[in-house]
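Need fresh eyes. Consider my entry:
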Amino acid sequence: SWEERLADAVTPLWRLSYEDQLRVKYEAQRTVLLRLSAQLAQGADPLSPLPWTSGQLGFPLLPILPSPVTDGYRNKSTFSVNRGPDGNPKTVGFYVGTGKARDIVCVRGDHLQNMPAKHKLVARCYEEFIRLSPLEPCLLFHEGGHWREITVRTNAAGSTMAIVYFHPQRLTQEEVCAHKAALTDYFARGPGKVCQLDSLYFQESSGTRCSHEDSPYQLLRGEPHIYEELLGLSFRISADAFFQVNTGGAEVLYRAVGERGFAEGAGTLLDVCCGTGALGLSLSRRARKVVGIEVVEQAVRDARHNAALNGVPNCRFLPGKAEEVLPGLVPSLGSEPDLLAVVNPSRAGLHYRVTRALRNCTALRRLVYVSCKPEGEAMRNFRDLCCPPDGQKKLTGHPFVPTSATPVDMFPHTAHCELLLVFESYSPLLPPLPSRMCVTESMRPHTHRPKNGEVATESTVEDVFDETYREKEGPKPPRKIVWRNVILMSLLHAGALYGLTLVSSASVLTLMWAVLCFLLSALGVTAGAHRLWSHRSYKAKLPLRIFLAFANSMAFQNDIYEWARDHRAHHKYSETDADPHNSGRGFFFAHIGWLLVRKHPDVIEKGSKLELTDLKADPVVMFQRKNYKMSVVLMCFVFPTVVPWYLWGESLWVGYFIPGILSAAHLWGNRPYDVHISPRENRFVTFSAIGEGFHNYHHTFPYDYATSEFGCKLNLTTCFIDFMCFVGLATDCKKVPQELVMARAQRTGDGSHRSG
């Protein structure tokens, strides 16, 4: 059918499951990188070969990062106008066929999986409008006609911008104005009102693609911009400004760029092809200064506005072509300490003058290249960055060495995939930069922790162990008891013990209620503070987040913000002085003692540096933090006591139970996935803590929503999350592929692994 032909052309992987799509893309990126390695080997100097020119993949290809949204993810779509399958020239959709074969047919895209419903609705209304219009469509410029494409832009909040392109041909301005008025009236008061457009733009042009400077976008109705939220920042989007078409995927990509390439406290960051500044602004917290370059002047104005809007003072953005601006800019940056760069060009790659300027900048130590088409012109950029010095090409600087590659799926159902490549400047005379491979599953096991006196750079992934952390020399600071907590915990546990003496006199309903309260409070910690907010291993809609916040208050284990912050520090600095509940200080300390003493100074220092913008951006988390004391009184004491008293006339002493997850699970058990880390598997703790005892697996793969290889087995929390997905309140559960689990267990486990 025409629909299937269009789906095959626009979304060629639509017949595959998403897991199979990721495998296809991963292998495609691996093929590209093997080809790059082979080309580097061919161009190597045989008398002085470089370490990465062996022809093999000499750097790690990390697991592909999936898109958090797979259907309807596009925030920008451009629909063409041409003859449809029925011959009607006023059909709005996408092309099937080629101009060379003269068999182009315009097919409606209502069935395309990557297109949101709002885009399809606007396209249908535009088709209806041009069919009512007396003007003909512009199929070929020399054949006449007027109505051309329509671009639809939306944001996560539902705001919609439409841009209609129009060829004036020989119409007078009065005639053009009349048709603009008809278009405005159709979408403002006519049938097109159903689209609820926030912005309607009109561009009249006789060129195929014209910028705002060449042919201004005319605002016919509504607001001049729409705004999008990304990684806790707000971005203004103009009619022709570049913004990643998959907002959720962009968050994954930008977070990966920061984690793979840039440590906090970095020097100057050069952002080439910066668009509206989204990537540079998202990295601004890690850098002393950010300098962005962008060819679209309106995008530069948007970037400057976005910096001011978000209160980011350390970013400046320069308009112009990168190949013209960069060669003059780089010499002035030569004295900058710790100069780093990120480039995110179009499919055409970087101009050779840009590559040359970056290559010859002696101060540039690390470069992150984000390519949407690495098999294309970007391959030439890679070769020029990595080849030996070449006087003929004026490549005189030290070559760059690729240190890691990460595929990021920004375009589900299509064959396209972003590739994030990290390069570091290579010279035998320069000390190597610390590795930024900041994921748990790397190409080789981590068997060494830096000792005192060794220099390393701190990891930037908040829930992955940081091998570069060094405990301070000298005596440990004295433990300072917090007597308030001691008294409170003593009273709570004494009350719980006294409650046990009342079990024989309690009714069955009361005992069942006590178990239910335990399960609810446990889920507030396990499914809420732990898996949702600490590790972001799945997404929860507002009703579920509110429920989990109340349940977390019932648990009385600190507010979500503080719990998640300390837990991320626990993963990042496990069994060190910076671990809030370091099991190396004994079972009692790890279980409850850490609550009774002042935090170690390293816990406070390292916790304050963690990236917590996702928590600050969640209104549920911040509301609970603001009202935590009152919510604890209501949910932990009043609510569990009043319900049995009011409903069936009985009193209940509420027991206080803190599962020994962070103590027993770090001291006793097997390590089937990674023998080099302390956390272990403990089935008893797993059962008592409703699924949180698969700790060796969890510290090896912290982003897995199940925290276990075995799904719902001994894992009530995973059952709960799966049920929430079934009813539509939870989405995007992250799961480690089984083959990756097996490979890791065989490579770094202690031999006790038994799958299933």
Notes: DSSP finds 24 helices and 18 strands in the chain. The chain has three domains: 2-50+58-67+244-425, 76-227, 483-748.
